[in-house]
## 1
Amino acid sequence: MKTKQFIFLYSSIIIAGVALTSGLINLSCKKEKNEETVIQTLTLNQNWSIISTYVLPSNPEIAAVFSPVVQDVKIIKSGLGKVYWPELGINEIGNMVVGEGYFLCMSNDRLLNVSGEAVVPEHTPMFLNKGWSNIGYLRTTSAPVTSMISSIANALIIIKDSEGKVYWPYFCLNNIGDLHPGEGYMIDIKYSRVLFYPPNNM
């Protein structure tokens, strides 16, 4: 298997009303040797959403990934507060990071095909620090949030989607239901933990 590793530091910022505390996230992804190119079609809704992909793009540069729909992209924000703002010619994000969720604002509904190699979710640990993070969903099919975040269940405070739906175990509240391919999520944990998604065939 081929392995890629991503490490980045983030400082205290506020995005969409959520404070992200300082910390380190270390993302290692593995893909199968000689795996065929796959295409994931992302549904990009008008106005704000949180998106992610289970594909390692052939060209991970965010401007290249979003070039087919760039005329409708208003702004994209990473969990670090870095932005890709085509109209102003600003690109602070550079390459997309596997396992990260991105805030996206679109002027119209669009579909975007992302081509590359699919990651192996059970071999792609996501090292999350205490506090808030934006996470991607790395599996190819939808599945219950309770099963998907079981590896960090003892540290989870709350997880939110872009519609404001939550899974909040302390209050026995779950109106998220399933996590979905193509969507990203905001997560708050009380301890640093490693998130592993189950295999795609489960």
## 2
Amino acid sequence: MGLKELLSIISVFRVIIFNYSNIELSKRRKYMNLKLVFKIGAVWLGLFGALMLFAGQMTIESFGMEATNDMVNLARWMGLAMLTIAGIHWVIPMWVEDNLNNFGMFSAVAWTAFNLLNVYEFVVGITPTDAANLIPFGIQVIITALFYFYSQKS
């Protein structure tokens, strides 16, 4: 899959996000809220953290890299860090209720930075553009958009 296919996938996500943003805010908040978005983000990060911590070799190989002993050890440390960040995502709604929108917008910016890094890695060929990488990337983009939309002050 080349740059043309990657850009078409990104444009599909852009259309989905744009259409979602046009739905009246009160209707969107009926079933979803920012606290739930933080929980969704925590579960997503926790899943990858657990994979890196307990299945580092498999996770590294899924990115198209050779899993050396040093890489597997690094994956364990990164997995623990991701689990820690997932835990922080889980408790933020309980600790900062008054400023949750600010934390949500910060999270949207932070997740966007990771999304941009993923796009760069796809474009230059560091990460394979296959379903095993594009589907999680798409989910990550959706979570980022949820952080952004639900952080908007009503």
